[in-house]
UniProtKB/TrEMBL annotation:
Protein name: Uncharacterized protein
Source organism of the structure: Hymenobacter ginkgonis
Length: 73
């Protein structure tokens, strides 16, 4: 398992698409995904623990959407 932390955003962040990403790939329900997106917008870190392969995919996709994120050890 690998932890991925979403900690901030860049101008032009696609917040709706990020919520969908968290719901569809991150395993969160719609309420959790929305709340997590709001936290990231407020620059409060959100950490998920997923498989290593999925963490790499989420990292790449979130960065494209304008989300600042990193893998945790």
């Amino acid at each position: 398992m690998q932890k991925i932390t979403f900690y901030g955003w860049q101008v032009g962040m696609q917040k709706v698409a990020f919520s969908f990403l968290l719901r569809d790939r991150g395993g969160l329900n719609i309420k959790e995904a929305h709340e997590s997106t709001v936290r990231v917008l407020n620059e409060q870190p959100v950490t998920l623990e997923v498989s290593a392969e999925l963490a790499l995919q989420l990292l790449a996709q979130a960065e494209v959407l304008g989300v600042k994120c990193r893998l945790e050890s």
